[in-house]
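subagent[fold] <- orchestrator: predict structure for attached chain, return tokens only, no commentary.
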Amino acid sequence: MELKEYYKIWREHISVVIYAVLVAVVAVYAWSVKKSETYYASLLLDVSRVETQPTAEYKYDQFYRLQADEKFAETVSEWLKSSGAVRSIFDKAGVSSEGKTMRGLSKSFQAEKLSSQLVSVRFSPQNEDEAKKIANAVSAVVSDKTKGLNAEARDPNWFKVDMSDLIVLKNTQDLRLNLALAAFVGLFVGTLLAFGKHYISE
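subagent[fold] -> orchestrator:
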């Protein structure tokens, strides 16, 4: 089949192509507008010790302290993946968690251990004010859980967690680029549908 025949088929079913392009553009426009109203937030949780070993001798504790700090940072990360802890954070921040499933709650925060004493936390608030409330609630809930562990420890040389480096950014979208890509994808899909319709009708 020659190129002109392909073009003829494409012209005969141009309405399918136009429809596909319009659907793609409208869908991507709606997605871009909705996405541009969201925010990204990140903060750091600093794991440190309440006390240090009071001795001028060789501090045998230092090696084990680093290991313990690393394990505790992992514990903090797992707390923020727990639906119960996340629910407590939202309640303390005054943010509604209605309609969220257990799985949805557990995915509200992306917690990652960066080092033995640093845990990065990322989440998506509705606005900047909500981001600050949630960040403070994260710090408070993690601190409360840490104090609960401290109360059960025989060694006072235990942990504390502080929050730092809260960053809140609005999600910006390049609308023209998104629409151009949508039009291209719509054109491609529409062309496939047009040829598919032609061969089915044949």
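orchestrator: received. Logging for downstream: Residues 39-170 form a domain with the Alpha-Beta Plaits fold (CATH 3.30.70). The chain is about 60% helix and 15% strand.
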